[in-house]
Design a protein that fits this description.
By secondary structure, this protein is an alpha/beta fold. The chain contains ten helices and 18 strands. The strands form two sheets. Strands 1, 11, 12, 13, 14, 15, 16, 17 and 18 form a nine-stranded mixed beta sheet that branches. The radius of gyration is 23 Å and the shape is elongated. The two termini are 42 Å apart.
Length: 394
């Protein structure tokens, strides 16, 4: 890895931070579950190939939710038995192949259940998991992302659909139900969510007389930058609940994304113009808010400003390059006055940013990987040539 000048705008993958987060998460898992634990890195959160390859080197499985992600995992060298295949848009062809190849598959829909029944006719002994849907919001009001309308994934336990699906699987000769997938999108990131999910999984296993090999608790964790304390709290809570039901010897699967990758990316921009109007002082950069806040929801950012001897400005509005008026990062109050050429660095931007970066006005920015004080270009700037690839223009 060689030292190189950074061309802005760009993302910087903090490789040491990511490695540390994965190792700390692994340490928490080893503490309670020994070798009976799997980290499935969530491709959807950030699928930069260099990053995904780092996850593979660290022993992570690939957690994929589409054929495209599954195929990406294969191209990057993941073995099929080290791929977790989730989500509602599986294809029949890849579902059949993944089942035959020993991938971890968690059923999400009625059509997948029908495919499974077809596969039973010609399969050798295979194993399958199933995603559970239940009303977490009624138990923990205000803590789920779905709210009172409920989640849309998996088989509903509250109305009996899950039991019906389990009974259909039990009738199969060559395929055995061995896992429950409990992922829920939460807002609170509290350990309460994981306590409820684990309890429900244990209750289902007991009620349905299941001999489970694994519990896939999903993702949604908080963490990174705290020395692994959050990871330990989550895994400790899950282990305690499993122990109450004498199920602590199960293999625990976790599917972290944001909790390991958010703190592992920075975004760097340069000031290209400073414009004073009668109403505001606009500091225009070569980056864009859509690169760090694609949903335009954030009200503040963790950022580092250059150290200079300039006077302090009362208010400066930090803006992006696009033609949208709301491409404004934030207002800087009583900060040093920024000038053309100044460099600003945003922190904790690795989660659901790069994967949502649109091809709007400018195309995909460069990405550098940093280890210590050395940088390496791991994705080149996209221009017109990259945009035109695969297009038919005549």
């Amino acid at each position: 890895m060689i030292k190189t000048a950074l061309n802005t705008p760009c993302y910087i993958f903090l490789e040491d931070e990511f490695n540390s987060n994965i190792k700390l998460f692994r340490g928490a898992l080893n503490k309670y579950f020994g070798q009976n634990a799997i980290i499935g890195y969530s491709f959807k959160t950030n699928s930069l190939p260099y990053l995904v390859n780092c996850a593979k080197k660290l022993g992570c499985y690939a957690e994929t939710v589409s054929d495209t992600e599954y195929e990406l995992a294969l191209k990057l060298g993941y073995k099929e038995n080290k791929i977790i295949y989730n989500g509602p848009i599986k294809s029949k062809a890849l579902f059949t192949r993944a089942l035959a190849s020993g991938s971890i598959i968690n059923l999400d829909s009625e059509r997948e259940l029908a495919w499974l029944e077809e596969c039973d006719e010609y399969s050798n002994e295979k194993e399958i998991g199933i995603r559970v849907n239940f009303d977490v919001e009624s138990i923990l009001p205000g803590q789920t992302s779905m709210g009172e309308k409920g989640g849309r994934f998996g088989f509903c336990d509250d109305n009996g659909d899950l039991t019906c699906a389990i009974q259909r699987i039990k009738k199969l000769k060559n395929i055995k139900l061995c896992g429950l997938h409990m992922h829920v999108s939460s807002k609170s990131k509290s350990t309460d969510i994981y306590e409820i999910l684990t309890k429900r999984a244990c209750e289902i296993a007991k009620r349905e007389d299941l001999e489970l090999k694994y519990l896939d608790i999903g993702g949604g964790f908080f963490g990174g930058g705290d020395g692994g304390k959050a990871y330990d709290n989550y895994i400790h809570k899950i282990y305690d609940v499993l122990s109450e039901y004498n199920m602590q010897r199960l293999t625990l699967i976790v599917e972290p994304g944001a909790s390991v990758v958010a703190t592992a990316f920075d975004y760097v921009v340069s000031v290209i113009d400073v414009k004073q109007t009668t109403m505001n002082k606009f500091v225009v950069t070569d980056g864009s808010r859509i690169h760090v806040d694609p949903f335009m929801r954030k009200s503040n950012y963790a950022l580092s400003l250059p150290i200079n001897d300039n006077k302090t400005a009362d208010v400066q509005t930090l803006c992006g390059y696009t033609c949208m008026e709301n491409d404004r990062f934030t207002e800087l109050a009583n900060k040093q006055e920024l000038s053309v050429g100044d460099v600003i660095r945003f922190h904790v931007v690795g989660s659901y940013t790069m994967c949502f970066t649109p091809l709007f006005i400018q195309y995909l920015p460069r990405v550098y990987a940093a280890s210590g004080d050395k940088y390496k270009l791991v994705r080149e700037l996209w221009g017109a040539d990259e945009y035109l690839q695969k297009n038919i223009i005549d």
